[in-house]
Design brief:
By secondary structure, this protein is an alpha/beta fold. Helices cover 36% and strands 20% of the residues. Strands 1, 2, 3, 11, 12, 13, 14 and 20 form an 8-stranded mixed beta sheet that branches.
């Protein structure tokens, strides 16, 4: 039996007064994928960067945690395009200097289960098409056209987002001509586009069976968001070797190369601003750290509503954006983290993700859920993280983990707003226990062999997300991905305050890949039009160690 290796899943260095230098070239607030990307790229170009993370570990939604002898990821359920030569893999190689390794999942990366009928998404364009044609033999042309379309959308995405690397005034002009440069589907909803390809609603329900990856149903989500996710996984999924915490662990040394550091327990109260120019940050404990540039990786709402000093919020009328209907928070969620006795062979587990729906009416089910009129969860996502990491058995022999995710209503937790973790009372704990039991039954229906092997479980609610991530509404995908979102001036790396920038998913799109690309675009904007090309040079000139 392999001996389990002791691994500390926490990353970063604990902040204390005096540990950080007084001045840096750049301070990054938040250590999610976008923040780590921006910090690493600037470090590779010679900048001394300080990353400040309020949580006890770095990584944002890429971090992992350990409890009762088990380990779970909180957001890195699977990543596409990194287990083979690709732009995404090269970017991760640059950020980690080749330290981050990936393990491919089984060919069936997602299984879409609608009213107990399963449809497999199989890695590879031709495999994907042929498997779906088995279920929809009359829809071959529509399926082939769909795959061609999402691939074309992905190829054209750099044109769509080119304005993010431009000055904000120039980006506003670019957006006016953008419809002439990219196809019309970039400006349509997912349902609008798919109903232009087929009238088969069952097929549309299956094709949109990954909508939980970005949190909006086909009626509401921009097809751009859907297409990027669908294409991202078309060649299959992968997982970090060593677990999700390897992402931050492998990137932090790159930030340290130029004298920078990633600090945890380092909450920032606000950005320091004089004459509408950022010059540092004020910490929650009163410390002040100074920098030539400040970058926010905490999303649009927290950047404008928290990091902006009160005078700047009034000066720039941030309420026009915070109250904007199409810039609302994305959905909150529940996640059940479960541990089981037995390894994947003993328990008969594989890496395939399960997406479970009561029927194909995604919009109707979510609308009913929002109104409290539902009789079933509108969406269940089940991941088996321990099966995806080839080093798992070395660290946790004879154990397995499962994660079960579904959407939540933050409004349901209004009675407990302002309460502390583990101090919310018996009613809260009873509500959590009832939900946990329901979610476990969903798992046992799909994997009945796990019932007797259950060893531990705990449920996170929207309040858990608020507590650990310090976000506004327990959201997991930042701002929702309406078509209109991508035309808003505030969704740009450059803010109204000089030398203050935004990075991460809100600058681009949801997901680890979206956060990474947001970090790339933010870095290019910081460097300016002349030096921005140096970022692309890092990727182009990278050579793997022989």
């Amino acid at each position: 039996m392999a001996k389990a290796k002791k691994v500390n899943v926490r990353t970063g260095k604990r902040y204390r007064t005096g540990r950080a230098d007084e001045h840096y070239d750049v301070i990054v607030v938040g250590s999610g994928m976008g923040g780590l990307t921006t910090a690493a790229l600037l470090s590779l170009l010679g900048k001394k960067v300080c990353v400040l993370e309020q949580h006890y570990t770095a990584g944002g939604y890429t971090h992992a945690y350990e409890r009762e002898g088990y380990e779970w990821d909180v957001g890195v359920h699977y990543i596409g395009e990194v287990h083979k030569p690709s732009t995404m893999k090269r970017m991760f190689d640059v950020l980690s200097n080749g330290r981050l390794k990936w393990a491919a999942m089984d060919p069936v990366y997602d299984r879409i289960i609608i009213a107990d009928k399963a449809h497999d998404f199989v890695a590879g364009r031709d495999n994907f098409v042929e498997e779906l044609v088995k279920h929809f033999p009359q829809e071959r042309e529509a399926i082939e056209n769909y795959v061609a379309l999402i691939r074309d959308m992905s190829s054209s995405t750099p044109k769509f987002f080119a304005g993010q690397a431009m000055p904000r005034w120039m980006a506003a002009i670019y957006k006016r001509v953008r419809p002439l440069l990219v196809r019309k589907e970039f400006f349509q909803s997912t349902r609008e586009v798919l109903e232009g390809l087929t009238s088969n609603q069952d097929l549309i329900s299956v094709l949109t069976g990954q909508w939980g990856d970005y949190g909006q149903t086909p009626r509401d989500a921009a097809f751009l968001m859907h297409a990027l996710i669908a294409k991202h996984y078309l060649a299959g999924g992968a997982y970090p070797v060593g677990g999700a915490s390897e992402i931050a662990r492998s990137i932090i040394p790159t930030i340290q190369v130029s004298g920078g550091e990633v600090f945890t327990y380092a909450e920032v109260e606000e950005v320091l601003v004089k004459d509408n120019k950022a010059y540092g940050v004020k910490m929650a404990n009163g410390d002040e750290l100074y920098a030539d540039v400040v970058v926010s990786n905490i999303g649009l709402h927290k950047t404008l509503g928290k990091l902006y000093p009160e005078a700047s919020r009034a000066q720039h009328n941030v309420q026009q954006w915070l109250g904007e209907e199409k810039l609302n928070h994305s959905s909150s969620s529940y996640c059940l983290y479960a541990g089981f006795k037995g390894n994947k062979e003993a328990l008969g587990l594989d890496t395939t993700n399960l997406w479970i729906y009561p029927n194909g009416d995604h919009e109707g089910n979510v609308d009913a859920f929002r109104k409290g009129e539902h009789s079933d969860f509108p969406l269940i996502y089940i991941s088996f993280p321990s099966t995806k990491d080839p080093q798992w058995d070395e660290r946790f022999p004879d154990k397995s983990t499962v994660e079960i995710v579904t959407i939540a209503n933050i409004e349901d937790y209004e009675p407990w707003q302002g309460t502390m973790w583990q101090q919310r009372g018996d009613d809260y704990e009873a509500k959590k226990e009832a939900l946990a039991k329901e979610l476990l039954e969903k798992l046992f229906k799909q994997r009945p062999q796990l019932r007797e092997a259950l060893d531990y479980y705990e449920l996170s609610t929207p309040l858990s997300t608020q507590f650990y991530q310090h976000n506004s509404a327990g959201e997991i995908y930042g701002v929702d991905h309406w078509v209109e979102r991508f035309d808003k001036a505030c969704m740009h790396p450059e803010t109204d305050i000089n030398n203050l920038y935004m990075t991460g998913a809100d600058v681009m799109t949801a997901g680890v890949g979206g956060g990474l690309m947001g970090g790339v675009m933010c870095t290019m904007r910081i460097l300016g039009l002349r030096r921005g090309k140096e970022v692309m040079g890092l990727f182009k000139n990278y050579k793997e160690a022989s």
